[in-house]
Input
Amino acid sequence: MKAPALATILILTALLAGCSGGEPEQSQSESQSSLTAGADAGIAPDAKLAPAPAEGLAERQEVTTGTVSLIATDPIDAGRTVVRIVEDAGGRVDDRTERPRTDDTEPSSSLTVRIPADRLTATLDEISDLGEVTGVSVSKSDVTMQTQDLDARIGALQASVTRLQGLIATAANTADLIEAENALSERQAELDSLVAQRRALADQVELATISIDITTDGPDSADPDSFWDGVVAGWHALLSALHGLIVFLGRAVPWVGFGALVVLVGYAVVRLVRRR
Output
């Protein structure tokens, strides 16, 4: 009686050991299949198995733009000082226009500057000390989702490019090689385009874009406050009128000479016809 019972126990123990020993191999096979599927989809295995990041932990990405209007005694010199302030802050000047004083216009200066976003407030305060601020406008646009989307697409394309490069290295025939090279060319072009977009977006996030207009009221822009100021203003107005009249006469001289020549020719023709 004891021998059959002992044999039965040994058989059951062997069966249980065999079942428990087969489970790791099945789990390993399923894991390998998961990795293969991820590679075929163009996704890195580590990225597929990594846990998704928790919401709210992504760093906020913002593009900052703005305008500043300033009145200064010497707009040209103030514009050059703005260039120095921006460069000292680690920024750069993308556009700069200087318009000196003329008979009809007052001097002015216009700049488009790029200022590090983390030093924007301090830099604008320093620029505001150059004159009278007549207007300031700063706006921020959230591009966090756009940044994350570009990063995800770049990561997927990089994994796909790596996989295609491996296929090219192990291609068994010419047809497979040509097909893999064509696919690699398309993926690489798309990857380069996305990388360029990401760099441009990163530049916009890192450096705020500010447009600065610097003008002046001019010495004669204010109304006279006293009798003597009225006399001076009237004198300047008279000189301006005389200057305009002289310029008009100078422009009219060629026309007067041409008109006189036409009259003389016409008179000579009429005399000749009457004599005949």
In short: The CA atoms of residues 252 and 258 lie 10 Å apart. The two ends are 166 Å apart (CA to CA). The beta strands are 62-71, 92-99, 108-116, 132-142, 207-215. Confidence is low (pLDDT under 50) at residues 19-56.
